Amino acid sequence: MPPQLLNGTYVTEVVLLGLTDRPQLQTIMFIMFLIIYTLNLVGNSWILLLVTLDPTLHTPMYLFLGNLSFLDICFSSVTVPKMLQNMLTHQKGLSLKACLTQMHFFHFLGSTEVLLLTAMSYDRYVAICRPLHYAAVMSGSVCVWLSLSSWSAGFVHSLLHTLMMSQLPFCGPNQVNHFFCDIKPLLGLACADTTLNARLLSVVTGSLVMGSFLLTLLSYILIGFSLLQIPSAAGRVRGFSTCTAHLMVVILLYGTALFTYLRPAREESLQIDQIAAISFTVFTPMLNPLIYTLRNKDIQRTTKWLFRLVVSEA
């Protein structure tokens, strides 16, 4: 049955149904997601602080890592605080304009992160496969250009979806079966033909994610061939260790993003999309600082230096 007008008018407010309507489960999930979000803010802010304060970390790799940390803070902050508010207060409504704004920034920051990870894979390729030319190829201007290009392309990609979505009339019911405003659930509220919007999601977003994934995959294939040419096993392990953190983040993000946005929008698939969305909006931003710092000697050294500095000042 097609959507019907809500009380004879078009929808101006959207109700996010969230992950569950069971009060006890909501309390448990609120505490869990609050802890995870706090760890995300603390961990990524710490990396951003270290990269900013330590001049020895003013290199291409850490410029990209600082960008990634800032992105993770913003990306999760688009969805998680509203989700926590809904769980705590049970006030799940927000205006249609606020909903579209949340959708815009979600896709803006998400697509920017995908593109930034691709730039980071190129940085690793140059560092391992062309080490003698690394300083010339990955100059400061090139790093800034790659970062700005990622942000700009992500914004244009999201703006296209937002403009297309804002042209649609939305009817009742005004309930969105999700914990944030995303394209697929919102298309279900439209009382107009959404074929073009759905096609844009599959073609444009799918191409962006798949294209970035293939470029990243190509970088790692070339890195793999280069590492195989190193005669010593210790040298191969040392070379691969510089890529493991980035590779783990790529697998976490691309796995869920490809799974979510390359499948057609069906009602029965939206519950699965929620689970995937929790992964790349809640867990992955929290895990990134751990992945990048556990075996990173530069970050560990700068952390010790900053602690000693704070202690001595105290």
**Strands of the biggest beta sheet: in what spatial order?**
2-1-3
How many alpha or pi helices? 10
Strand content: under 5%
Radius of gyration, taken over Cα atoms and rounded to an integer in Å: 21 Å
Element order: H for helix, E for strand: EHHEHHHEHHHHH
Question: What would CATH call the homologous superfamily?
Answer: Rhodopsin 7-helix transmembrane proteins
Overall pLDDT confidence: 83
Which parts are unreliable, with pLDDT below 50 for 5 consecutive residues or more?
none
CATH architecture: Up-down Bundle
Question: How would the global form be characterised?
Answer: globular
Structural class: mainly alpha
Helix content: over 70%
Largest sheet entry: 3 strands, mixed
CATH level 1 class label: Mainly Alpha
> In angstroms, what separates the terminal alpha carbons?
68 Å
Number of domains: 1
Write a structural description.
The chain is mostly helical and 314 residues long. The protein has a single domain, classed as Rhodopsin 7-helix transmembrane proteins (Rhopdopsin 7-helix transmembrane proteins, Up-down Bundle). The protein contains ten helices and three strands, in the order E-H-H-E-H-H-H-E-H-H-H-H-H. A three-stranded mixed β-sheet has the order 2-1-3. Helix 1 (23-53) packs antiparallel against helix 2 (60-89) and helix 3 (96-129) runs parallel beside helix 7. The model has no long low-confidence stretch (mean pLDDT 83).
